[in-house]
Amino acid sequence: MTDDIKAQVLGIAPLIVALRRDLHKHPEPGWKEYRTASLAARHLLDLGYKVTMGADAVRAEARLTVPDPATCARERRRAVAEGADPELVARMGDGLTGLWADLVCPGPAPEGERPGPLVALRFDMDANELLESDLPEHVPVREGFASRHAGAMHACGHDGHTAMGMGLAAVLQTLRPRLRGTVRLIFQPAEEDGLGAAPMAAAGAVDGVDRLFGLHLGIQAAHTGDLICGATDFLATTTFNIQFTGRAAHAGIAPQEGRNALLAACTATQNMHAISRHGDGASRINIGQFAAGDASNIIPAHAAIIGETRGVTSAINKYMMDEVTRMSEAAARMWGCRSRLHRTSDCPGGASSPELVDVVERVARDMDCFRHIMRTRSFRASEDFTWLMNRVQEHGGQATYIQLGTDRPAGHHTRRFDFDETALTSGMELLARLVLDSLKARD
User: Are 417 and 408 contacting, i.e. CB atoms less than 8 angstroms apart?
Assistant: First the structure.
């Protein structure tokens, strides 16, 4: 059966590359993935999958941020103009762009046993808000599939992830009579800002899942043929913005009447970077943006800072955010101002299940396309896949985050990011083999 999988994957490889390039030309940032989600949903429906989407797949009230209705309406119109299914787009409302698709496999169950396990795979869909390179040596430019959307590009490989998920769906459909259990393919929006997984988890995307696989191109797997079977030490993280409000006054005539919001924000920023580090593990803080003031002769009435905390555990990240809150409030009072903190995203910490890492390593070593297989790496960054991972693990299931090696000319989240498309075939074959292993395929 594994030879059949390899042959099928190689047979559809040109179609998957073409699909990846089409998605690359039409990038859609978080909560705006109308065209991408529509193409995935239509493909899955045509293959006979049961598709859950819109408000059934994304709990709207669990989203921390979302584009305004006018922006969503504009993005829906553009998606339809670029070939999206109007009926499917309409079901996504204002930014409800996540979906999952189930394939129930009818293989016979022994007397007294349940029909089989539920195995899920996550594929993120969103693009980055970044202007793609126009250099002639940039492969998407040279080959004619560079972004057509100004200020948006796939600079992290999610176009490849979505294409792999759609290709995998076709391969698994042909294997369905020989599998026992259910396969769930999760197409997630808004990963880049850490926003999409939590509302999908709240809607039930991984409820009852026995095994969950996430896969990402590149990151720590730097070359084609590399594979990292699992990740440990995901950092919990929170992003935030804080608005400081004071009172404007003439800086020359009546400075005593003013309440300087800029100085409140400066005081808060300095003290946040001096937060005592935690003795139980790594912690991080960064204030990445600062805005304040109107003119040199006006006491600033408004200021804003945007930043993030991280911790090697969710408890350490909470400690950091508690300190951020305390210091912002104290700094505001010190200068006679008010502060308002808004959390814009949250991701918990996490680690891959060792038992499932073992499965990935065993399956990968039976393939001929990986030259360097690493069992795990310490991730030391954040990914909202941990919302799904933790939920599965807390309910007795297993989850792992795989990094699929690929050569690339520039780093992730840069204007010249691209990847070796031959990695798509090895990724699809690996995931198909993992589904076979999980659903006890019968030869």
Answer: yes
- Give, rounded to a whole angstrom, the gap between the first and last alpha carbons of the chain: 7
Q: Whole-model pTM? A: 0.90
Q: Which residues contact 372 (CB under 8 A, 6 or more apart)?
A: 223, 225, 226, 227, 405
Cα separation, 259 vs 339, in Å, equals 12
Identify the structural domains of the chain with CATH numbers, from first to last: 2-234+348-438 (3.40.630.10), 237-347 (3.30.70.360)
| Contact residues for 50 (Cβ-Cβ < 8 A; gap 6+) | 101, 102, 103, 104
Cα–Cα distances in Å, from 167 out to 18, 21, 119, 442? 11, 14, 17, 22
Q: What is the pLDDT of residues 60-115, one digit of tens each?
A: 999 988 899 999 999 999 999 999 999 999 999 999 999 999 999 886 555 555 56
Provide φ and ψ at 430, rounded to 5°: -60, -45
Q: Give CA–CA dist 127/412, Å, rounded.
A: 12
Phi, psi (deg, nearest 5) at residue 426: -65, -35
CA–CA dist 290, 307 (Å, integer): 9
Structure tokens at 155: 């600079």
Q: Each residue of 393-418: pLDDT tens digit?
A: 999 999 999 999 999 999 999 999 99
Interaxial angle between packed helices 34-46 and 158-175, expressed in degrees from 0 to 180 and rounded to the nearest 10: 10
Q: Are 334 and 281 in contact (CB under 8 A)?
A: no
Q: Which two tokens stand for residue 284?
A: 């991080």
| Nearby residues of 254 by Cβ (< 8 Å), 6 or more positions away | none
Q: Are 212 and 435 in contact (CB under 8 A)?
A: no
What is the DSSP secondary-structure string of 38-74?
HHHHHHHHHTTPEEEEGGGTS-GGG-S----HHHHHH
Tell me the C-alpha distance between 265 and 405, whole Å: 42
Rounded CA separation 391/274 (Å): 34
CA 247 to mean position of chain CA atoms: 40
| Sign of torsion over alpha carbons 55, 78, 20, 4 | positive
